[in-house]
Amino acid sequence: MNKEITHPASTWLKLMAAMTLAALLPVTARADATLDKIKSRGNVAIGVLVNGGDFGSVDPQTRQLIGWNPELARKLAKDLGVGVELVPVQTATRTQFLIASKVDLLIASMELNPERAESMGYAPTPFYRVGGTALTLRNSGIAKWEDLRGKTVCVSQGSSFARPLDTEYGAVTKGFKSSADSLLALKGGQCVAAVHDSTLLQPLVRKGGEWADYHAPIADEILPADSVVWTRKGETDTITAVDRVIQSWHRTGWLIETEKRLGITPPQPLLQELHKKFQGS
Question: Three-state DSSP class for 19?
Fold first, then answer.
């Protein structure tokens, strides 16, 4: 006859704790192995946002990805000692690409906020600071954020600007798959303004052309926040390696030089601040 085996309560609790720890260990090992995988295959896949403008676009002649985000991704891979695969991502899907391991890292005009930090990891040293601005027709009468109350505003799906626009300024936000779709909707009269990163909209205003009838009249940016390189949660080795590289960019002034070379204006004061901070380190 089989005899049932019983455990005292304390033994049972220890057994359960051991089983829980054993279940967690493989997950932790997989997460921490990302940097080793990158180095073993000699390649890192980086998701980059290329929604037009100085921060990321497609060269019409070569079809190569150009601008701030692609340049930083290539430099990051080089400084990590590996090759790079640039993966274009959209605002609405960039987070899913990272979490689903379709990319190893994100450099995707994706600023740091508490909600994103809950679900993803990131290198703590920022490489830029960006806020949102509004693009409107010159005759729209919009001069401050409060003027958007009760009016339809176009944004990208997943944009962090949607919440303050809705809750603080009473706007009626309408989300689109990409910033290009949002801007097309603005042109089509579906909204009174489109709100996106200032780094996307300000170059449009400067260049004029098809946007000659539009301007960015609101001086202060909404939700200015640090731009960081994103990783999956818990990838401490990867975070450490990436952060070390970003600090070296500030120390040498490479980011300031790159900003000038790409003609990004106005210059971001954060770059000068962090250059001075890390120069002595």
Answer: helix
Cis peptide before 124 (omega within 30 of 0): no
Residue spans of the domains in the chain: they are 32-127+228-279, 130-224
- Residues 76 and 239 sit within 8 Å (Cβ to Cβ): no
* Mean of per-residue pLDDT scores for the chain: 88
Looking at 3.40.190.10, 3.90.550.10, 3.40.50.150, 1.10.10.10, the CATH number of the domain 32-127+228-279 comes to 3.40.190.10
The answer to whether residue 2 scores a pLDDT higher than 60 is no
- Considering only the top CATH level, what class is 130-224? alpha beta
Residue 178: other Cβ atoms inside 10 A:
17
Please compute Rg for the chain using Cα positions.
23
**Mean pLDDT on 114-126:** 95
The secondary structure of residue 267, as a DSSP letter, is P
Tens digits of residue pLDDT in 155-193: 999 888 999 999 999 999 999 998 899 999 999 999 999
- How many angstroms separate the CA atoms of 273 and 233, rounded? 28
Cβ density class 214-248: b for 16+ within 10 Å, e for less: bbbbbeebbbebbbbbbbbebbebbbebbbebbbe
Tokens of 226: 């640090």
Q: Determine the 3-state secondary structure of 26 from DSSP.
A: helix
168: enclosing H helix or E strand: none
DSSP 224-240: EEEE--EEETT-HHHHH
Contact 134, 193 (CB under 8 A): yes
